Amino acid sequence: MNVTTKAAAVSRRRLLPGFGITMGFSVLYLSLVVLLPLSALLFNSTGLSWAKFWDVATDARVLASYRVSLSTAAAAALIDAGLGLLLAWVLVRYEFPGKRIFDALIDLPFALPTAVAGVSLTALYSQNGWIGSLLEPLGLKVAFTPLGITLALMFIGIPFVVRTVQPVLEDLDRDMEEAAATLGASRWRTFLRIVMPELFPPLLTGFALAFARGIGEYGSVVFISGNMPMRTEIAPLLIMSKLEQFDYAGATAVALLLLLISFLMLLVINSLQHWARKSSR
Q1: Among 260, 219, 253, which residue's Cα sits nearest to residue 239?
Q2: Alpha-carbon span 209 to 224, nearest angstrom
Q3: How far apart (Å, rounded) are the C-alpha atoms in residues 22 and 20?
Q4: SS3 readout for 104-160
Q5: Residue 50: CA atoms inside 13 Å, Cβ hemisphere, count?
Q6: What burial class does residue 171 get, using C-beta atoms within 10 Å of its C-beta: 0-12 exposed, 13-18 middle, 19+ buried?
Q7: β strands within the chain, DSSP E
Q8: CATH 1.10.3720.10: does it fit domain 49-280?
Q9: How far is CA 274 from each of CA 140, 176, 194, 207, 216, rounded to the nearest angstrom?
Q10: Would you give the DSSP letter of residue 161?
């Protein structure tokens, strides 16, 4: 009995060959790519006194940039969650001409330089642009407003939601949906009670990825935002402005506070994701 138990324990330990080596490389990679840059950020902020740090963190312009960055990133990620679910559903459940081209276009924001995306969106939605000129008579202004920032963040965030939800939707067993239909459940009720509980965790993951990308996005936003302090200035642009003024301590303080806010919000989202997965089981 003891021999069998020991053999089972050894088998479990050897389930992942070379665990010590792979774990060492993983920790080294994580340290070089993530931990050391964050440590340098903390080290650069040590030159600030608490009073100076508090003055920088509570400055009206800094708080306004946080408000613009967080609100537009959250709005864009929320809209992307709905649109991404719809796009993933169409790509998985329907066949239509040009489906492969449509599927490939989803990844275009990954390959397209963000500056090119920003210039293109600004040209389209400015007052003289193709779309902006049509919206201007209606009193709707997109470029150089928070709405334009949200639109740019939606563009760069939509692939995160689609590519997170799509594999789960492809592996979803349709027998439960057919059983619910034979028992008289409507399509909407089947979606809410059978499909949605399985898609909610990956949907939260896609939302978190799009939200995190939107908070730190710079290239696609800097052109369409107009960079007006207290109105459309985002936090990454404010950090760049402080760096250009050789205010390294101030830039580090703004970046550190933005990092803390982002980490807390992602922690809340990941906690919700864990709860959703546990509830679905």
Answers
A1: 253
A2: 22
A3: 6
A4: HHCCHHHHCCHHHHHHHHHHHHCCCCCCHHHHHHHCCCCCCCHHHHHHHHHHHHHHH
A5: 0
A6: exposed
A7: none
A8: yes
A9: 40, 24, 19, 14, 24
A10: H
Cα–Cα distance, 239 to 234 (Å, whole number): 9
> Which among 49, 255, 220 is positioned nearest to 149, based on CA atoms?
220
Decide: helix, strand or coil at residue 65.
Answer: helix
Per residue in 181-231, pLDDT (tens digit) is: 777 777 788 887 878 888 888 898 899 889 988 998 888 898 898 888 888
Nearest-angstrom CA–CA distance, 253 and 247: 10
Q: In whole angstroms, give the CA distance from residue 77 to residue 242.
A: 28
Q: How many CB atoms lie within 10 A of CB 33?
A: 9
Pick out the chain residues at pLDDT < 50: 1, 7
- pLDDT (tens digit per residue) in 129-154: 888 888 888 888 888 899 999 999 99
CB neighbour class for 69 (10 Å; exposed up to 12, middle 13-18, buried from 19): buried
In sequence order, what are the residues at sequence separation of 6 or more whose Cβ sits closer than 8 angstroms to the Cβ of residue 173?
A: none
Distant-in-sequence, close-in-space partners of 153: CB < 8 Å, separation ≥ 6: 72, 73, 76, 77, 210, 213, 214, 217, 220, 221
Q: Which two tokens stand for residue 216?
A: 């730190």
Distance separating alpha carbons of residues 253 and 248, to the nearest angstrom: 9
Report phi then psi at 127, rounded to 5. Answer: -60, -30
Q: Can you give the pTM of this predicted structure?
A: 0.81
Task: List the chain domain ranges.
Answer: 17-47, 49-280
Q: Are 149 and 214 in contact (CB under 8 A)?
A: no
Burial classification of residue 139, based on how many CB atoms lie within 10 Å of its CB (0-12 exposed, 13-18 middle, 19 or more buried):
exposed
The two structure tokens encoding residue 124: 């389209």
DSSP sequence for 20-46: HHHHHHHHHHHIIIIIHHHHHHHHHGG
